[in-house]
Design brief:
This protein has helices at 3-22, 37-40, 68-76, 117-125, 134-139, 142-149, 160-167, 173-190, 193-199, 203-224, 232-239, 245-257, 261-281, 305-312, 328-331, 335-338, 344-352, and strands spanning 28-32, 55-60, 82-83, 86-87, 90-92, 98-100, 111-116, 152-155. Strand 5 and strand 6 (98-100) form a beta hairpin. With 353 residues, the protein is α+β, with helices and mostly antiparallel strands.
Length: 353
């Protein structure tokens, strides 16, 4: 059973009747959201070794923050040992993840979390209120936004949780265009290096650069389809579900598997061509004339600058005045930094440096 299906059954068969009995008329929402492969639908039997099982988030009214602990305690006091054959009680492992009580420290907790929409918004998005500011959008990783918008809401009669998810369902247009322009600029910066390094005998360097370029292309594909990209563990899995994947995959696979730099350059050109086709289909401006690279064409098969210029022309202040760094997911793969919604760790590091 997939985790999302298990959690829905857990709520409908056990938790919802208990809430109605213990707290009749209480306004709340419930669902499975946040971190976890089960939220994204990527969980497998391996996922069941930690932080997986009948789990649920319950959201009380924002004015009832003090009541959260009482609701959780009342529910756990009436929980059985198992649900549909799956353990309901967990301990903590040394790294803080929830594992079976036998493997953990015997803390005896369930995977029921009781919070409020306001508190969860602060923790997940680092925001006190919506809409998000430009800086907040750029500091939030795609992975974190997938966690907020993924999974499923099982019950939300008031609609506050639904409105939150709708408000961050995707980037505002200006942020979307800026992110694409930044990734195209990054690719143009290193596109010739795939071949240049190989040409001087640095095959390992050529492979590393090809892998960096492949990641950027995959991120750009997610942006073009207006989908949030997951972090490294699930990037390839989620990419395979994009409409663009069949057209890009042959080029990407050639980039990553070719034994010589010339074949890598050919693969890179094929993947870039698929991206340029999709860019034209977005209708962000008149069709661009395709042309070969004006500089060292043996290393790059097409000129990317017209795409970059077209996107930059659509940007307004302050984004049109900012360096093409994109969002935090574009230039930083550090998982703790990506999961920090306010980028406090990054800010503190920059100050100390």
């Amino acid at each position: 059973m997939k985790g999302l299906e298990l959690s829905r059954a857990f709520y409908e068969a056990l938790v919802a009747p208990l809430l109605e009995k213990l707290f009749p008329g209480m306004a709340y929402a419930a669902g499975l959201l946040g971190p976890g492969s089960d939220v994204q639908g990527f969980d497998t039997p391996v996922s069941q070794d930690h932080d997986w099982g009948p789990r649920l988030l319950i959201f009380l009214d924002n004015r009832e923050n003090e009541r959260c602990g009482r609701v959780k305690k009342a529910l756990e006091a009436r929980m059985p040992e198992r649900f549909l054959g799956y353990e309901l009680w967990y301990g903590y492992a040394s790294d803080g993840v929830s594992v079976s009580e036998e493997r953990g420290n015997g803390s005896g907790h369930t995977l029921i979390q009781v919070t409020t929409v306001a508190e969860w918004t602060r923790r997940m998005l680092g925001a006190e209120r919506l809409p998000l500011s430009l800086g907040q959008w750029l500091r939030l990783s795609d992975q974190r936004l997938r966690e907020v918008t993924g999974g499923e809401i099982f019950w939300d009669p008031v609609g506050e949780l639904t409105r939150l998810r709708r408000a961050v369902s995707y980037f505002p247009d200006q942020v979307w265009i800026y992110r694409m322009a930044s990734l195209w600029s990054e690719m143009a910066e290193e596109a010739q290096f795939t071949g240049r390094t190989g040409d001087v005998g640095d095959d390992l360097g050529s492979r590393v650069i090809a892998a960096r370029q492949a990641r950027r292309m995959m991120l750009l594909a997610f942006l073009m389809e207006r989908r949030y990209a997951p972090y490294a563990k699930w990037l390839g899995t989620a990419f395979s579900r994009l409409e663009m994947a069949p057209k890009m995959r042959p080029g990407l696979e050639k980039m990553l598997s070719a034994s010589d730099w010339k074949a890598r350059v050919e693969g890179q050109g094929a993947a870039l061509s698929a991206l340029m086709d999709k860019h034209q289909a977005l209708g962000l401006g008149p069709d661009l004339e395709r042309r070969g690279a004006p500089y060292r064409p043996q290393y790059l098969t097409c000129d990317l600058q017209p795409v970059i210029d077209q996107l930059k022309a659509l940007l307004e202040p302050p984004l049109c005045q900012m360096a093409p760094l994109g969002g935090i997911s574009d230039f930083m793969e550090n998982t703790p930094a990506q999961c920090d919604p306010q980028a406090k760790a990054l800010g503190a590091w920059l100050k100390q440096a």
